[in-house]
Design a protein that fits this description.
By secondary structure, this protein is an alpha/beta fold. It has one domain: Vaccinia Virus protein VP39 (Rossmann fold, 3-Layer(aba) Sandwich). It contains seven helices and seven strands; from the N terminus they run H-H-E-H-E-H-E-E-H-E-H-H-E-E. Strands 3-2-1-4-5-7-6 form a seven-stranded mixed beta sheet, sandwiched between helices. A hairpin with a 7-residue loop joins strand 6 and strand 7. The longest helix is centred in the last third of the chain and has 15 residues. The protein is globular.
């Protein structure tokens, strides 16, 4: 299987130029996420890609750190932050399990369109919990699997994916039920506060979880 960092490095320039696939769902995700953020918080976004979400949300928090496994994605994110004159965002190249420890834990960790791409999900959820303060929030939106009536192309993708991975044309992708994802999050000491769905053709639940201790 293709190395994840190398795969996303190869996609960075193309990814940065792609329009948002579902702008209504994306805007709804941002609006609901802002509901949980405030100007005194320290926020970490894992899998931040080219920084689009970070640069839209950072004005509502005190400090925002964006991390991604792809150094090419992070270079683009840094360039965009400089162009926009944003001062409260710092970007770092790191896998979830490599996030550098901070002197002060984060108030919130965000992970959008990411968890289904993590081969070591349980370990990564444990790492997320370790950098959050007690009562801190983990906010995610993650592909979990196909709903009844989903477009045929998504069902075909599940069948074609192993071959694409062998050819280096696709990264690891986890197909799991929403209930399984929630159970994995809860197993690391989180309480699920909210679940929403902003799209209809396949399951990408928006989940807000609070660290209990």
């Amino acid at each position: 299987m293709v190395d994840s960092a190398q795969f996303w490095d190869s996609q960075a320039e193309k990814y940065a130029k792609q329009p948002i696939a579902n702008e209504a769902a994306y805007d709804a995700t941002l609006d609901r996420t802002r509901h949980y953020l405030d100007e005194d918080q320290r926020v970490l976004e894992i899998g931040c890609g080219t920084g689009t979400t970070a640069l839209k949300l950072c004005d509502g928090v005190g400090t925002y750190v964006g991390s991604d496994i792809s150094s090419s994605m992070i270079r683009i994110a840094i360039d965009e932050a400089v162009k926009k004159g944003v001062a409260n965002v710092a970007f770092q190249t790191a896998a979830v399990g490599e996030i550098r420890d901070q002197n002060t834990p984060f108030d919130a960790v965000l992970g959008f369109n990411l968890l289904h791409l993590l081969p070591t999900l349980d370990d990564d959820l444990r790492k997320i919990a370790s950098v959050l303060k007690p009562g801190g929030l983990f906010i995610s939106k993650t592909f979990c699997g196909l709903r009844p009536g989903a477009p045929l192309k998504w069902r075909f993708m599940k069948i074609a994916l192993p071959l694409m991975q062998m050819l280096g044309k696709a990264p690891f992708v986890r197909f799991q039920k929403e209930s399984e994802l929630k159970a994995a999050i809860e197993a690391q000491g989180f309480e699920i506060l909210e679940t929403r769905h902003f799209v209809t053709d396949f399951s990408v639940p928006f989940i807000v979880a609070r660290k209990l201790a």
